[in-house]
User: Fold this.
Amino acid sequence: MAIATLYDLDAALGRSRTASRALVQSDRDAGLLAMADALVAGAGVILEANEWDLEAERQRGTSEALVDRLALSVGRIEEIAEAVRQIAARPDPLNRVLDGWRIENGLSIRKVTVPFGVIGMIYESRPNVTVDAAALALKAGSASVLRGSSNALESNRVLVRLMREALVGVGLPADAVQLVDSPDRALVTDLLSARGKVDLIIPRGGASLIDHVVENAKVPVIETGVGNCHIYVDASADLDSAEAIVLNAKVQRPGVCNAVETLLVHQDVVASFLPGALRALAGAGVKLIGCERTRAIFPEVVQATKADWAEEYLDLKLAVRIVDSVASATEHINRYGSMHSEAIITEDRRSAMLFQEQVDAAAIFVNASTRFTDGFVFGFGAEIGISTQKLHARGPMGLEEMVTHKYLIDGEGQTRN
Amino acid sequence: MAIATLYDLDAALGRSRTASRALVQSDRDAGLLAMADALVAGAGVILEANEWDLEAERQRGTSEALVDRLALSVGRIEEIAEAVRQIAARPDPLNRVLDGWRIENGLSIRKVTVPFGVIGMIYESRPNVTVDAAALALKAGSASVLRGSSNALESNRVLVRLMREALVGVGLPADAVQLVDSPDRALVTDLLSARGKVDLIIPRGGASLIDHVVENAKVPVIETGVGNCHIYVDASADLDSAEAIVLNAKVQRPGVCNAVETLLVHQDVVASFLPGALRALAGAGVKLIGCERTRAIFPEVVQATKADWAEEYLDLKLAVRIVDSVASATEHINRYGSMHSEAIITEDRRSAMLFQEQVDAAAIFVNASTRFTDGFVFGFGAEIGISTQKLHARGPMGLEEMVTHKYLIDGEGQTRN
Assistant:
C-alpha cells in the first residue's frame, strides 16, 4: 500500500478519461506517425533502458532464453515503428454507420461506431506490446492505460515517455497513453475494479495472467490467447495432407496459441496414418504422449492423463488420442478445448459440416493448419489478440472490434403514446 | 449450504450444456409454439401457484401495489403466450453469414452466427420474465438457466414445468429450460462463478441486483437497465415541443428505465421556458428538485445534492439544472448519467451534432422523448433488455445480439510458412 500511494491510479484514470474525450475530433493518424518517428529517433535511450531491464533479469538468474524475450535492438525498434505506421494506414474504425433505418413515427435511427473511451491493457514481458497496444487503442479512439510486467518497466517507461512526447508534438493529449508506473501488484486489482473509469480490459499473456484478470475483473474483459487446439484426422482424410498439416501446426512455431496440442485420429486410419505421422513428429523433436489405445500400438508413447488433454503445452509436445467417430472427436474437443482453433482433416462433406457445426470454438478449419488463426492472416491488418470468449469479439480481434457503438435518433418532437 | 446441497447446480448446468448442443439442429420454433399453447392450457395451475406467492407476500405485510406486480391473470397469461408466439415468428438469428471472404492462399473464411450455449438469467419479481427469458434464449439456440426472485418461486416452478413438458412433447430436450429451484442465495454466487459452464449472464432488475451481478460475476455479463436519463433544452429549442417532450419523458411512465430523471436548461431560455414547464410538471404531480440557480428563481423547488444528480428516481420526481452551454450539459451527463438514453431539444444543427458526438450513452436523441429507447419501438421485435455497457450489445438488445459467432475456414491442405 505504501508504494501504491505514490502512484495515484484514480487520478491517472481521470486524466485518461479527459484525454479520451479529446481524441474523437483529433488527428489520431498524425499522432501514430509521430509516435513511430519518435521511437526510431529515440532508439538510443530505449536500448539504454532496455539494457537495465536485461541486466536486472540476468542478476535474478533468469535463463538467457527468457532474457532474450525482453531484448530490443535497433532492428526490432524499427519493426515496432513500422507496425505503428501500418496501423495509421488502416481505415478509421470510428464514425462508421453500421445500420440505419426510419421507424413508423418518423424517427430516424443510426447505429454508429464510437470509441470505448479508456482501455486497460494488462500484459507480460515483451516491451513491443506496450507500443502495439497503445497504437491500436489510439487508432480506435481510446486512451490506453498500460500495465506491463515489472521486468520490462524501464523499457516501458521510456517507450511511453517517447510516445507521449510525440502526441503532444502534434497537438494530441499526452494522457491518451499512460503507463501504470509502479510495480505494485495491488494496482492491477484496482485497475480491474475501476468500473466507470475503465471501459474495457484486455489481458495479453499466459493462462495464469488471463485467469487472474477474468477472476478479479469487475470491468468488462475480453479474454484472449489461451489455445488448447486440436486436429482431428477423419476416416476419409487425405493422409499425406493430414501429416503435413499436423507437422505444420505442431512444429512450425510451437510456442504460440494457435499451435496444435492434441491429435485425434479416427480408428479406421490408425494403421495407415499413425505410424508414419508419429515417426515424422518424433523426427522433428516432438515428445509424444497418448491414450491407452495409442500406447497399445506404440508402447514408447507416454501415457496421457486427463490433465494432459486440458493442457496448453506451448512446446514440442503432442497428445494423441484414437477416437471412434467425428462425434467422439467433437465431444473430446468441446470437453477439453479452450474454444480457440480446431481442425478436421477429411474428404467427407458430411464429416466436415458436422465438425464445423458441433465444435464450439472461435475458428474451425477444414483441411488447413490451425496456425492460420491470426488477425494479419485473416486480413484485419492488425490484431490486439485472439478472443476465446463469446462476448463482443471472438477469434482474431482487429481494430473493427476495438470500438463500440451508439444509436443516434433524430426526431421532430415525437413523444410516446 | 444445507439447502444448497439439495439443489445440485453443477449437475443442472451440465444438463443445460447437453441440451444446448441438441438445440442447434432442432425445430426451436415448434418448441416455442408448444410452450405458448401449454401456458394457455395450464392457466388454471399457473394461477393456483401464483395465488400461493401472492398470499405469502400478503402474509409478509407487502403493500398491495407491490403484491400486484407478482399477480397473473388469465388475460396476462394469454399476453405472455402471445409474446412467445411473436418470438417464434421472428427470423432465425442463427446460421447467418455475417461476412465471408477468401484470402491469398486460397482459404475461404466465413463468419457465422452461432448460439452462446448456456445463458443464465437473474431477475426480479414479475413471473412473466421467466417465460420471456426462456423463449428468447430458446429462439437464439441457447439453453436458459433461470434464477427468478424467491417471492415468485411457486409461479416460476409451474411456468417452467409447463414449458419443459411442452418441449419434450415436440422432441426438444426439457433441460433447454431450467429453473434454479431453490431460494438459497449462495446459488446466485455459484451461478455467477460458473466459468465454462455458463457462457453469458443477463441480469434484469433494479440497480442493486445489477450491481451485485457485475461485482461478483466471473462469467461474461451483459449489464442492463439502470437509466439515469437527461433532457437538455438548448438555447435554440422549440419551447412548446421541449415542454411536451419533457412531460412525456417524465410522466407517461415514470417507473421505467428510459424515463427522464434530470432536466438541463440553457440559461438563455430559463425565463421563456422554465416557468411554464415547471408549472406543467408540478400540475402533473411531479416533485421538483433543483440547482441553486433554479432555486433562486423558483424558491419552492427543493435543493438538489450531488447524490440527486446520480439517482434514478423511477418516480414522479425530476431534478432541474440550469447550464451555460451544450458543453456543460454534455459534461453533466457524462459525469452523472448511466449511459442509457439522453436527449437534446434544439433547432441548431451544430448543437445537435455536438451533443450526439460528445455524449457517451447508448441512445442519443435529438428532438424526441427518451421513452423511445425500446427494442420493440426500434423494430427488433423482441427485447431481452437495454444494455448500458459497451461490450457486445449496447442499447436495446434483441435476438440478433443474443447470439455469438464463429469463423469457419475451408482449405485444401494449406499449411503456414
